[in-house]
Amino acid sequence: MEFKEQGPRKNILFVFISGSMFIIQSFIILFFNTQLGTKLPTYFTLNGFVIYWFNYSHPIVVPGILLLGVIHFGGLILVRYIPLLLKSVPFAWKFLKNVSYIGYILFSWIEFLSWTILIYFFLYDSQTMYLMLTINIVHLLLLIVGTIYYRKKS
Questions:
Q1: 105-131 pLDDT per residue, tens
Q2: Residue 16 pLDDT more than 90?
Q3: Is the pLDDT confidence value at 57 over 70?
Q4: H/E element holding 55?
Q5: 50 has which bridge partners?
Q6: Is the dihedral of CA 114, 120, 125, 127 positive or negative?
Q7: DSSP state of 98
Q8: Farthest CA pair distance, the chain
């Protein structure tokens, strides 16, 4: 069993992507802070329905930026450590020799969901829920297709 970490270039690339998305989203929140609501969505179902909100008496500028920062940081942790964790599971290692694609798909999923959550800060309606449902379905299909591809390849 061989444990291989990602190279430093890929780590820098993921930090650059996540950091730039976070900065852009923070500027959007700061620029359009007068249109922000006072409810911070924090718990979602897979179909995009918000189950739990934090209610504030003021617009959610700082809490929104902090939530997006946590989401982007979580994406960086997932892309780095999920493949290593899966490689330590004997069944996953036996089933698939290459599990790094799972980290990439999870990172992409987190980055796309951060944009959907940003839209939730400004607008909560059925189009936003359909967008989150679409992102979830597409990334689930990517995971299934990637697993089939890498299973046939190994």
A1: 889 999 999 998 898 888 877 778 888
A2: yes
A3: yes
A4: strand 50-55
A5: 44
A6: negative
A7: -
A8: 55
Count CB neighbours of 32 within 10 A. 13
- For 61-72, the pLDDT digits (tens) are 999 999 999 999
Find where tokens 């990602």 sit. 6
Three-class DSSP category at 96: coil
Exposure of 110 by Cβ count < 10 A (0-12 exposed, 13-18 middle, 19+ buried)?
Answer: buried
Q: Contact, 75 vs 106, CB < 8 A?
A: yes
Here the tokens at position 120 are 């939730």
Give me the half-sphere count of Cα atoms (radius 13 Å) on the Cβ side of residue 104: 11
Question: Position 81: which residue type?
Answer: Y
The dihedral built from the CA positions of residue 39, 114, 85 and 90, taken in this order, carries a sign that is positive
The beta-carbon contacts of 90-94 under 8 Å, at least 24 apart in sequence, are: 93/1
Q: What separation in angstroms does the CA of 4 have from each of 49, 59, 98? A: 38, 45, 10
